Amino acid sequence: MAFAETFKALADPARREILTLLKVGRMSAGEIGSHFDMTGATISYHLKILKNAELIYEEKEKNFIYYSLNTSVVEDMLLWLSDLRGEQDEKN
Amino acid sequence: MAFAETFKALADPARREILTLLKVGRMSAGEIGSHFDMTGATISYHLKILKNAELIYEEKEKNFIYYSLNTSVVEDMLLWLSDLRGEQDEKN
DNA sequence: AATCTAATTAGATATTTGTCTAAATTATAG
DNA sequence: CTATAATTTAGACAAATATCTAATTAGATT
Question: Quick one: average pLDDT of A34-56?
Answer without folding.
Answer: 97
